[in-house]
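User: Can you predict the 3D structure for this chain?
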Amino acid sequence: MKSTLTNEQIDRYSRHIILKQVGGKGQEKILQSKVLVIGTGGLGAPAAMYLAAAGVGTIGLVDADVVDLSNLQRQIIHSTPDVGKPKVQSGKETIHAMNPDVEVHTYHEMVYSKNIRDIIRDQDYDFIIDGTDNFPAKFLINDACVLEKKPFSHAGIIRFQGQTMTYVPGQGPCYRCVFPKMPPKDAIPTCRQAGVLGVMGGVIGTLQATEALKYILGIGELLTGYLLTYDALSMTFRKVKIPRNPNCAVCGDHPTVTELVDYEQPACDLSKS
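Assistant: Here is the predicted structure, written as C-alpha cells:
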C-alpha cells in the first residue's frame, strides 16, 4: 500500500517514521486520529501541544475559561499576550502555529451531563484526555466515557504530586473502581488553594499524551489496570495495580449509573474533623 504522506510530512515526522514501532503506517494512523482534551490548563496544555506536534489529525479543546496571568506559570499553551482570551482560542492559535496539519475544534463551554456526550460524538473522538481540576468533572467524564465506550486518560496534580491512569472499555477498571465516592467538598484542596509546582502539569500531561499515542498506534503497555503516582520531591514513580470492581456503579456487572447527572461534592462533616 502506497504511503499517503507528503514529502513535508515525511520530513516533519521523520523521527517517528524511523521507529520500527511507528513507521510510515503508524504516522498515518496518528494523522487520521482524533483526540479530545477536556481542560486546557496545567494538564491539557502540554498534552495538547505534544499531541499536535506528533501530528494527531484532529484535536478537540474544551474549556469555558479565559487565560489569566496566574495560569502562565504552568499552562504552556498560552502566553502573556493571550491573557483575557478564551483558553480554547489561545490553544487553537498555538497549535496551528506549531503544526498546520492539525484540525482543531473548540468548545468554549463547561462539560455538563447534557452536552458531554454530544461533544464526544461531535467528531467521534478516538481517545479522551481528562485535564480537569475538580471532582464533579472527573466523575462526569469517567461516566460519559464508560457509557460511550471511549478510552480515556485520567490525571490529577497538586503541590509536588501527580497521578494518572488509563481506562479502555472492557480491559480494566474505570476511575470509579478506584474512587467509588466523591470526596467531601474542601476535604482535598485544589491547586488554587494548595499550590502546584508548574512543571507537574508537564510531567503528568505528557504522560497522558503518551498514553493517547500508544493507544492510537496499538503499541506497548497502557496504564490500564494501574494507577501511576509521581512525587517530584523524592523523584519517584510508583505503579500500583488496581482491579476492576465488579460492583462498580458505572462499569460493574450490574451498573446503577446508566444516565449522566451533574455532580456536586457533599459538604464536609466538620464534627468529624
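The longest strand covers residues 152-158. Confidence is low (pLDDT under 50) at residues 268-273.
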